[in-house]
Predict the structure.
Amino acid sequence: MKLKSIHPFPARMAPEIALEECRTLPLDARILDPMAGSGTVLRVAAESGRTSVGCDLDPLAVLISSASTSGVPPEDIVPAATNLAGRARTLEEEELHPTWMQDPETRAFVEYWFAAEQRKALTRLGVCLASENGDLGDVLRVCLSRLIVTKERGASLARDVSHSRPHKVRQENDFDVMPEFLRSASVVAKHLAAAPVISRAEVTRCDARRLSHLSDASFEAVITSPPYLNAIDYMRGHKMALVWLGYSVPQLREIRSSSVGSERGAEPRHDSAVIMGEVRGLAWFARLPVRQASLVRRYVADMCELMREIARVVVTNGKAVMVVGNSCLRGVYIENSRILEMAAEAAGLRFINVYVRDLPSSLRYLPTPSGLISDDLGKRMRKECVLTFAKA
Ligand SMILES: C[S@@+](CC[C@H](N)C(=O)[O-])C[C@H]1O[C@@H](n2cnc3c(N)ncnc32)[C@H](O)[C@@H]1O
């Protein structure tokens, strides 16, 4: 199924999974994706007229999800972008010092990753975007981010930004930001016009482990794909766009530190997770070196907190569908899906079924496993599990 995203995103959920799961729900069902990413689930729900709510910690994920589900009239996008670019070109020199870019770390970051011409143009657009409120403003921010979060050539000096593995590949750049911004606006308008939304999704930037703004038993279904352990550092690529959209590097570092699945090891509090004893008994856990075992311990605690919140907000007999692949740490195959299963059961969710599907190569953003792992392990890493639970 072709559901084009308006912005690249690493490890998007395959749209057919979201579509299949939504199809089984009544039209008045309320759906939550607490780790919405680019908003695949929300978009499918919004296109079918179902009520949906999304959360994510990553400001860019929130922007993309909001922009693609807010129902902004596509025909308004290019005129608004043209108007914004016109204003940006005429800003006076003294207006070109955005407050969030004044700290030495953020300045050094943009000087390293962007050449002078693109920095000037992006600053102009960033300053104008800072005063753009509302849904159209979010769409325009996405149009700008698309110039930077690219695989190949874009406004930065890096490549592979869209895979969240940016590396600097040139010292000079002739990328012409203003006309490309208008081109990006027309691509986004085209994508949004191709799949109009019937109901809008409500998207907030928040931690999926702490959903206190959502009431108990308020969703018929949760459909989500949590990060794999240690697989993708979303903020690494996304911060290259977010520094033009109101965020400083220190702010983004703070956000990254609370992301699930990152490189951070466990703290003593993580060891009190209810399933930790059971996890320690798994054969693969015993083979992990100390540092990698510590990453797993943190992930286990995070998944327990996530599942507790999911179990709380789902109605009795409601369902929770989780899509996750497995990881490999130092040659040891980590069953993320098993961790999810144990965490769900500990939270009071009943396991219904699991099916394993091939990860489409277009959606595989993980580094190709090589060297340390066998062919068999490589094959298993190209699969993902779709787990369904029900609230008893
Ligand atoms: C696999 S991606 C989701 C992809 C999404 N299903 C899509 O189709 O684009 C996992 C998401 O979890 C988010 N995330 C990580 N830690 C989080 C947390 N503590 N709370 C909320 N979201 C979090 C990441 O920012 C990322 O967007």
The mean pLDDT is 92. The pocket of S-adenosylmethionine is lined by residues 9, 11-13, 35, 37-38, 40, 55-58, 61, 207-209, 225-227, 234, 258-260 (CB under 6 Å).
